[in-house]
Design brief:
This protein is mainly β and 143 residues long. The protein has one domain. It has 1 helix and 8 strands, in the order αββββββββ. The strands form 2 sheets. It has a 5-stranded mixed β-sheet with strand order 2-8-7-6-5, covered by helices on one side. A hairpin with a 4-residue loop joins strand 5 and strand 6.
């Protein structure tokens, strides 16, 4: 039963990567509530009402450890396909957007490692670890 639930959540999150926009996060169904979007890195300016394209190559691990009554957040992380910077005058890294599920309390300790390739959202009992490497963004849930 846990595998079936985990596959259902992963399926919903994968479907979300194909159709999500900043104003329309209702695709997760009635069990998840939405709240304002939070970013790991300040967002790039977007035109009002424009859709945010979520990164399509995302792997979700330990989905059975998602907090109950979780809400959806769209976060920004370093692009896993971006070339490595060389020299001191390299341009800023490119970023991609990923949908994650977090506890409804808004008090997260955000830790960034490896120049933004690894970001951890710590909610006390629950953690969300996002890793960006080799063309894949991995979201791992811990309780």
């Amino acid at each position: 039963m846990k595998k079936l639930t985990g596959l259902t959540v992963v399926g919903c999150l994968l479907a979300a990567t194909m159709t999500a926009s900043a104003g329309d996060l209702s695709f997760f169904g009635p069990t998840l509530r939405t709240q304002p979007i939070a970013y790991a890195v300040p967002p790039a300016p977007h035109a009002a009402g424009s859709a945010i394209a979520l990164y399509p190559n995302v792997r979700y691990k330990h989905t059975h450890d998602i907090a109950p009554c979780a809400v959806t957040k769209i976060v920004k992380i370093k692009d896993p396909c971006a070339p490595k910077p060389c020299g001191c005058c390299a341009p800023p890294p490119r970023c991609v957007y990923v949908a994650i599920c977090v506890p409804p309390c808004g008090c997260a300790k955000v830790h960034s490692h490896r120049h933004g390739s690894r970001v951890t959202y710590d909610y006390g009992k629950y953690k969300v670890k996002i890793t960006s490497k080799r063309g894949v963004v991995t979201v791992s849930y811990d309780d």
